Amino acid sequence: MAQNMMLYWSSGSPPCWRLMIALEEKKLQGYKHKHLCFDKKEHQCEEVKALNPRVQLPTFKHGDLVVNESFAACLYLESAFKSQGARLIPEDPAEQALVYQRMFETDNLQKKMYDVAFYEWYVPEGERLESALKRNRETLVTELKLWDGYLEKMGKGSFLAGKDFTMADVVCFPVIAYFPRFHCPKEKCPRLMEYYEMVKDRPSIKASWPPHWLENPEGPDTLKNL
């Protein structure tokens, strides 16, 4: 059934990576895929434009169904293949609520990380202000404390929404993985770094690890001064 799936993706993109983790967790290996480079604007190709009016990645097709937003695609896979592979959304409504909360909170962590790690990429040189970057760093440190607090409350060895690996981990791990890669000091988020070390060798994550990260394990040090 995975042969009827087509994924357009880019290496290192958290939205693409989370969908690839979900496919691995649901035992849907063997899907068709095409790697596209953002830097070369390959994602603006006609194939993607025909499927995705936003011209973004991931772009995902299963049979005649097209699902482009990564959260939606991950949830679709869990619903369509509920009894296959790992169960990523628990049955209990209260447990579900926590999984969904951590999933959607991931956008906060990703945006605040990007505002620091990619500041020079997003902000034109003539508009950059050290005071703005300082505020962004402070905002990110506050966000990291929040996530560290979540894990502290859950207890040692916990995943993001409890004792089991869930869709919260599928969605958020690709963002968390940027912190050690971009040299974030461990003391700024010790619990999050413990979580990273615990989860990074999970088979679904190893199988979908960004290829260019394997070639160049060390990323830029844009988070070292938090």
TrEMBL record:
Xref: CDD domains: GST_C_family (cd00299), GST_N_family (cd00570)
Protein origin, superkingdom: Eukaryota
InterPro entries in the cross-refs: Glutathione-S-Trfase_C-like, Glutathione-S-Trfase_C_sf, Glutathione_S-Trfase, Glutathione_S-Trfase_N, GST_C, Thioredoxin-like_sf
Record SUPFAM superfamilies: GST C-terminal domain-like, Thioredoxin-like
Domain GST C-terminal: 92-221
Descriptive protein name: Glutathione S-transferase
GO biological process: glutathione metabolic process; L-phenylalanine catabolic process
An annotated Gene Ontology molecular function: maleylacetoacetate isomerase activity
